[in-house]
């Protein structure tokens, strides 16, 4: 029980930091919907698709490689967003990443902020079943798929994300 609490706490803190990096690193050169870039998923069987602002950011911190993928209604929106975050001890490449623990953190996490401001994260779910598959990655764009279960950080209600896919520009 104690390990579960600390695992959830550390995963939540990681998710908050990662999503904070995503929001704070947004640049003014937002990718518009006419570019063909998008992030989409079925949230509890309802299609949610974002094309207003999409991006992929990569960094390496203390030997951990991180790739943050995001899609939002607009550059300045604090709601209406889908995220996928990969953290690994090796360079991010074309393969499937899961929620297994690597270097003390989940290798893959997903998040969703709905139009009402509810914030969902897979980091709060004991067995979220996260799968993030990178199908192409280069200096211009990243494509792939994702799925998993997320939990509202306030109410504890869950949402299932299925058939998620993305093509986002590397920033």
Question: Would you give an account of this structure?
Answer:
This protein is mostly beta strands. The protein has one domain (2-169). The chain has one helix spanning 2-24, and strands spanning 38-43, 46-50, 53-61, 64-72, 81-88, 96-98, 101-102, 105-106, 108-113, 119-121, 131-137, 141-152, 158-169. The strands form 2 sheets. Strands 1, 2, 3, 4, 5, 6, 9, 10, 11, 12 and 13 form an 11-stranded antiparallel beta sheet that branches. The longest helix has 23 residues, at 2-24. The radius of gyration is 15 Å and the shape is globular. The relative contact order is 0.21.
Q: How much strand?
A: over 45%
How many helices? The count is: 1
How would you sum up the major sheet? 11 strands, antiparallel
The SSE string, one letter per element, is: HEEEEEEEEEEEEE
Q: Features of this protein?
A:
eleven-stranded antiparallel β-sheet; 171 residues; 13% helix; globular; mainly beta; two-stranded antiparallel sheet
Topology:
Blueprint: H1 2-24, E1 38-43, E2 46-50, E3 53-61, E4 64-72, E5 81-88, E6 96-98, E7 101-102, E8 105-106, E9 108-113, E10 119-121, E11 131-137, E12 141-152, E13 158-169
Antiparallel strand pairs: 1-2, 1-13, 3-4, 4-5, 5-9, 6-11, 7-8, 9-10, 10-12, 11-12, 12-13
């Amino acid at each position: 029980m104690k390990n579960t609490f600390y695992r959830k706490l550390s995963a939540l803190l990681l998710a908050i930091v990662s999503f904070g990096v995503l929001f704070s690193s947004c640049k003014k050169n937002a990718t518009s919907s006419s570019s063909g870039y998008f992030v989409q998923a079925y949230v509890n069987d309802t299609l949610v698709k974002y094309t207003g602002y999409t991006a992929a950011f990569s960094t390496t911190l203390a030997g951990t490689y991180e790739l943050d993928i995001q899609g939002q209604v607009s550059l300045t929106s604090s709601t209406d967003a889908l995220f996928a975050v990969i953290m690994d001890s090796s360079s991010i490449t074309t393969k499937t990443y899961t929620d297994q623990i690597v270097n003390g953190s989940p290798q893959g996490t997903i998040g969703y902020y709905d139009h009402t401001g509810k914030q969902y994260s897979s980091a709060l779910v004991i067995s979220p079943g996260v799968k993030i598959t990178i199908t192409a990655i280069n200096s211009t764009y990243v494509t792939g798929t994702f799925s998993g279960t997320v939990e509202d950080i306030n109410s504890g209600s869950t949402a299932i994300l299925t058939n998620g896919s993305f093509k986002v520009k590397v920033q």
